[in-house]
Amino acid sequence: MAASGDSASDRVRIEYHRDGREDHGFREELRAALAETPRRIPSKYFYDPRGSELFEAICELPEYYPFRAERAILERHAGEIVRRSGASELVELGPGAATKTRLLLDAMAAAGSLELYVPFDVSGEMVARVARRFAELYPGLRVHGLVGDFLTHLGEIPAGGRRLAAFLGGTIGNFRPAEAGEFLARVAASLDPGDSLLLGTDLVKDPAVIEAAYDDAAGVTAEFNRNVLRVLNRLTGAGFDPEAFRHRAFYDPENRWIEMRLVGVRDQTVRLPELDLTLELAAGEELLTEISAKYDRPRVEALLQAAGFELTAWYTDPEQLFALSLAQRM
To answer: Which domain holds residue 237?
Structure first.
């Protein structure tokens, strides 16, 4: 651990393993996704700086319960989570603005165990901002930022002491069930036996409550959804007109997930030069931009166990809207 007298900048290290504008693999990924039925845009492309700002705004909306519910759980149980994990290092997958991270870091600092924070995100700007902020807030804290795609770069997580990996916000819901299991197995492989995982999951509930969270009255989520087209325009030289699409969100009770889509309001021809691709989109055709699966405890426990984790604690908010699972790497 660095001495507390060191400057914050001396305690920050950032590694760049992926920049979406330079990674050639994104072309194949997008080309394949846009060839599916319905055509699909991977949800990770939401998060350019503007997308991140819009998501932060979504988290403050009255309809968006997941943020408030998860924060309430952490406010009540962060100390117990840290004690149970015995961790001195926090690895956060997809922290974004890391709004709730301070609750865990404060608990680790109070326990006298805080040594290292590893923010791992696709946005280099967000990682750098978070790294600087927390290095300044916590004297002596080392920050090892990783800029990359945690779907493919989990092996870059630095080895060290006892680790707590946090995957918050219900982001696991963006994976289809089989994909979620494969991802968690890769997370397990990147950790050592005895390390812990803190997993946030949105719970099954009244579909009306879920749908309102993804289709707010102010239209912020609709703008967030359309912004993914602006990201594709920058990445691929495409000519999408975001205003030529309307936002649609609906709950699928059979799959127990919500879907967000963009629906074309007119016939369109869109050229994507970087992908050597031209899309002919009919009026009413939909682009799938996100799924968000909803869970219950048995489903979470089975998912964790199959991936190599043992559930050690289950925390929910009073309204049973959201859950945090603490699991130990077996």
So the answer is: 30-44+210-293
pLDDT tens for 94-104 read 998 888 999 99
Q: Is 211 helix (H, G, I), strand (E, B) or coil?
A: helix
Would 214 be classed as within a structural domain?
yes
Question: pLDDT digit string (tens) for 142-164?
Answer: 999 999 888 888 999 998 899 99
For the cut 50, the answer to whether the pLDDT of residue 171 exceeds it is yes
Phi-psi region of 296 (alpha: psi -120 to 50; beta: other; left: phi over 0): beta
Whether 105 contacts 198, CB under 8 Å: no
- What pLDDT is recorded for position 23? 53
CA angle 137, 140, 144 (to 5 degrees): 85
One domain for residues 99 and 182: yes
CA nearest to 58, candidates 215, 235, 260: 215
The beta-strand segments (E) located in 59-189 are: 89-93, 116-121, 142-147, 163-167
pTM of the model: 0.94
CB neighbourhood size of 138 (10 A):
21
Cβ atoms < 10 Å from Cβ of 4: 10
Long-range CB contact pairs, 305-312, < 8 A, 24+: 306/181, 306/185, 307/181, 307/184, 307/185, 307/187, 307/188, 308/184, 308/185, 308/188, 308/189, 309/184, 309/188, 309/197, 312/84, 312/196
Other beta carbons within 10 Å of 73? 22
181 and 163, same domain (yes or no) = yes
Q: What angle do CA 117, 313, 172 make, to 5 degrees?
A: 60
Same domain, 311 and 183: yes
Is residue 4 in a domain?
no
CA distances, 239 to each of 222, 268, 273, 285 (Å): 19, 10, 9, 17
Distance from C-alpha of 182 to C-alpha of 287, rounded to nearest angstrom:
25
Amino acid at residue number 131:
A
The H-or-E segment that residue 220 falls in is helix 220-236
